[in-house]
Specification:
The protein is an alpha+beta fold. It has a domain of 90 residues: Cytochrome c-like domain (Cytochrome Bc1 Complex, Chain D, domain 2, Orthogonal Bundle). The protein has ten helices and 39 strands. A hairpin with a 2-residue loop joins strand 7 and strand 8. Helix 7 crosses helix 10. The longest helix is centred in the last third of the chain and has 23 residues. The structure holds calcium ion. Calcium ion binds next to loops.
């Protein structure tokens, strides 16, 4: 045994309860596969099955009324908190903004260490395409693995927070980023990446040796240029489903979220992403299925070799990626046992897949879906609706690119047999009017998916979210609770007949799992974007939640989240831990704040300049500041920004990069004329907002 890991074991023993030496859990494949033990939360989805179900039942539907705050920790400097914490023997670990990892002693509520991978310093121009958010970490034999937004995978000592190794997993010259959680199995750690909207990216996942950080295998989710030779027969097979010169645009298929390890078959399942670009007429003119976009792909976990795939959206052209979580469950369907994989990708269908074979068992709509009528049971393929491919130029389609279900994880409760899914009911206008497929070129560190997205979004007050309880055997809804807003977080379900879910409006609720009756609600003072977890220390069950508003719905799509008033930097970020005898009062967070757009009446808006500014804004600024310049709280609302009004201040920030440490990159290539055009655009948007406010809209 290495000295470092010996030290880790000793430290873990000493940290045991109140000076008593307790046996430390060896976090390996056996431990992570253990569904029955509820004390720890060892993996992103708790166990390998990714069910987010805890067998703990000290907190139940009968006594939930007594749940209160045991303790909380303010997290100054943190911004987006999306991550699922892990718990190992009374220590809680989580990744925060820019992949800073925290270790907290649950018994004392005290911080043990933090690890800062200095993501902003390492990011270079990738600061333009990434967010601060990180969805989670993994733990294996005394080591924690965290990916950084700039593309590194780092191993750290769980006892001390010291870095053990660091591996760059992407080409830093390309706009790849990572905010997903790595997964571990068989002394290997696997990670994917994202970024297809900002450059010509080819998706892949890579497995590394947990001891050394050395690459074990890599699997590409889309084929490269045939002239370079294919990596293997799988790539040659996939290439037959593509047309044109797709490799020039990368193809896409990045694996930015869903990864599930299946110990029963020793396979890893990838949930693959959308096309690069979205628009298939550009990416693969003439059509084709475009394998393995928008698919579940099964690989041998030890070799990374292809086993099977099931494609949810052949020939995708709507950003309907299949990156959502994949949950493993043993079901009985029509009297037969099925080793099932449950998957609810963006496209709005709920899929039950036989994971032994990769064959579709069933698929039904869980929300409003107009791009396809149904999934054909025989072929396993969607029956697309006429017009869905916006072949006549533009089409309003359900769902939008945010999907009926996004990355906010669902949970499955084997007691009730139900899946608890946060859903969205919003259409998208898909258009490629004015785009010439042959002339379109991939962006480089700028946003452009090859679809003309609306650039003038104004804040919407929409309550189009729901928590849906779905029966995967009968493929039908059992209950539903409407939710405020749209961008609601992931769920947790327990042996106490409970479902927990935070909400966009700053509340955490518990529902009765069987019938959806709300039983308990508490105000956390900020929109929730992270899923809760539960665990047990010294015989007591706790529920923990990170509060920190974030994700693409808060950054790019500020128009659908601005209604909540979780303004940039305004509300307190926290870790909150609940228990049945908890009586700690949570200090009030600052109330919702709404952008006061500066109309600046003496500024004459030039329509042409404003239009030019809108293009520049979409390419360079929308990633963080929001479509239509409406901030959902991730970055300052530029319609209200004083700095954006003054030429010199604006230039110092936008070109000079003076706020880089706050996450704002410099755009050296922007000219004074470009900045002026953006100012015209911002004033135009500010006046639209003030007019809308005056009209009471
Ligand atoms: Ca995408």
């Amino acid at each position: 045994m290495h000295l470092a890991s010996t030290m880790a074991v000793v430290a873990a023993l000493l940290i045991g309860s109140g000076g008593l030496v307790t046996a430390a859990t060896t976090v390996d494949g056996t431990a992570i596969a253990d569904e029955k033990s509820g004390a720890n939360w060892l993996s992103y989805g708790r166990t390998y099955s990714e069910q987010r179900y805890s067998p703990l039942k000290q907190i139940t539907a009968a006594n939930i009324g007594g749940l209160g705050v045991a303790w909380f920790m303010d997290l100054p400097g943190q911004k987006s908190l999306l991550s699922t914490p892990l718990v190992v023997d009374g220590i809680l670990y989580f990744s925060g903004s820019y992949s800073v990892v925290f270790a907290i002693d649950i018994r004392t509520g005290k911080k043990l260490w933090t690890y800062d991978p200095k993501t902003i310093d390492a990011a270079g121009d990738r600061l333009r395409v990434m967010w601060d958010s990180n969805r989670g970490i993994s733990y294996w034999k005394g080591r924690i693995f965290v990916a950084t937004a700039d593309g590194r995978l780092n191993a750290i000592d769980a006892a001390t927070g010291a870095e053990i190794w660091s591996t760059m997993t992407v080409d830093p010259k390309l706009p790849y980023f990572i905010n997903g959680a790595p997964r571990v199995f068989n002394d290997k750690v696997v990670i994917g990446n994202g970024g297809t909207e900002w450059g010509p990216l080819r998706g892949y996942v890579t497995a590394y040796d947990t001891a050394t950080g050395k690459q074990v295998w890599r699997f590409y989710t889309v084929p490269g240029n045939p002239a370079d030779g294919f990596e293997d027969d799988t790539q040659a097979m996939a290439a037959k489903t593509w047309r044109g010169e797709w490799w020039k645009h990368g193809g896409g298929g990045t694996v930015w979220n869903g990864l599930t390890y299946d110990p029963q078959f020793n396979r890893i399942y990838l949930g693959t992403g959308n096309g690069s670009p979205w628009n298939q007429r550009i990416r693969s003119p003439g059509g084709g299925d475009n394998l393995f976009l928008c698919a579940v792909v099964a690989l041998d976990a030890d070799t990374g070799k292809y086993v099977w795939h099931y494609q949810t959206t052949p020939g995708e052209t709507w950003d309907y990626n299949s990156n959502m979580d994949m949950v493993l469950a043993d079901l009985t369907i029509k009297g037969k046992p099925v080793k099932a994989l449950l998957h609810a990708p963006k496209n709005g269908f709920f899929y039950v897949i036989d994971r032994a074979t990769g064959k579709l068992v069933s698929a039904e709509k869980i929300g409003r879906v107009t791009w396809a009528e149904r999934v054909d049971a025989k072929t396993g393929r969607p029956v697309e609706a006429k017009g869905a491919r916006y072949e006549d130029g533009e089409e309003l389609i359900y769902p939008s690119a945010f999907g009926v279900h996004n990355w906010h994880a669902m949970s499955f409760n084997p007691d009730t047999g139900l899946v608890y899914i946060p859903t969205i009911d919003v259409p998208g206008m898909f258009s490629d009017k004015g785009i010439k497929p042959k002339l379109w070129d991939s962006p480089s560190f700028q946003f452009d998916p090859g679809v003309d997205l609306m650039r003038d979004d104004l804040p919407l007050k929409i309550d189009a979210g729901a928590l849906v309880a779905w029966d995967p055997v009968k493929q039908q809804k059992v209950w539903e609770q409407k939710l405020p807003g749209v961008w609601n977080p992931g769920t947790l379900t327990t042996g106490g007949n409970l479902v927990f879910e935070g909400r966009t409006d700053g509340k955490l609720l518990a529902y009765r799992a069987t019938d959806g009756i709300p039983l308990w609600s508490t105000d956390v003072g900020l929109g929730v974007s992270a899923p809760p977890i539960t665990f047990e220390v010294d015989g007591k069950q706790y529920v923990a939640l990170l509060t920190g508003w974030g994700g693409a719905g808060v950054s790019m799509a500020g128009a659908i989240t601005a209604q909540h008033g979780w303004a940039y930097g305004a509300q307190t970020r926290r870790l909150i831990v609940y228990a049945l005898d908890g009586t700690t009062a949570l200090p009030k967070s600052p109330p919702p704040q709404f952008a006061q757009a500066l109309a600046q009446d003496d500024f004459k808006v030039d329509a042409m300049q404003a239009e030019q500014g809108s293009y520049l804004f979409l390419k360079n600024c929308v990633t963080c500041h929001g479509g239509g310049a409406v901030s959902g709280g991730y970055a300052p609302d530029l319609r209200a920004s004083q700095a954006a009004v003054y030429d010199e201040a604006f230039k110092e920030i936008v070109v000079g990069g003076s706020r880089r440490q706050q996450g704002m990159p410099g755009f050296k290539e922007l000219s004074d004329a470009d900045l002026k055009a953006m100012q015209h655009y911002l004033r135009r948007q500010a006046r639209k907002a003030t007019t809308a406010a005056q009209l009471g809209k």
